[in-house]
Specification:
mainly alpha
């Protein structure tokens, strides 16, 4: 590197390359997270991401950007719920015992007990 400007352009191009990689990773993560999109459409998006990556990433953000944000919010909500369940201090055995007590007392019926049991074991 002979001058300051060579170094400056190197930093600028490295920044944009890393930003581009982050966008590609976000798009691929969203593709894999989306349960409504069929496997064939996912394959088509991935092929286009390999063949024409920058244009495909921009098109994906424009076409599916809103759904991308919603899926991200849903994933964050699921992670928060999992954390709350893990940090509540109640083990699945405790939750099932509580549900059994409620069933025996008549506060819930058999279907609700099975639901609570499945949720505790999940």
């Amino acid at each position: 590197m002979d001058s300051f400007w060579d170094f400056f352009w190197l930093l600028l191009s490295a920044f944009f390359f890393l930003a581009y990689l982050v966008v590609l990773i976000q798009v691929l993560g969203d593709l894999l997270r989306d349960r409504e999109l069929s496997g064939w459409w996912k394959a088509v998006w991935v092929v286009f991401l390999i063949v024409v990556p920058a244009l495909t990433a921009l098109v994906y953000l424009v076409v599916r950007g809103r759904g991308m944000a919603e899926r991200g919010d849903e994933a964050a909500a699921r992670a928060r719920e999992a954390y709350r369940g893990a940090s509540s201090g109640r083990t699945p055995v405790d939750q099932i015992a509580t549900a059994r007590t409620l069933l025996d007392s008549g506060a819930i019926d058999e279907a609700e007990y099975r639901t609570l049991k499945e949720r505790a074991l999940a």
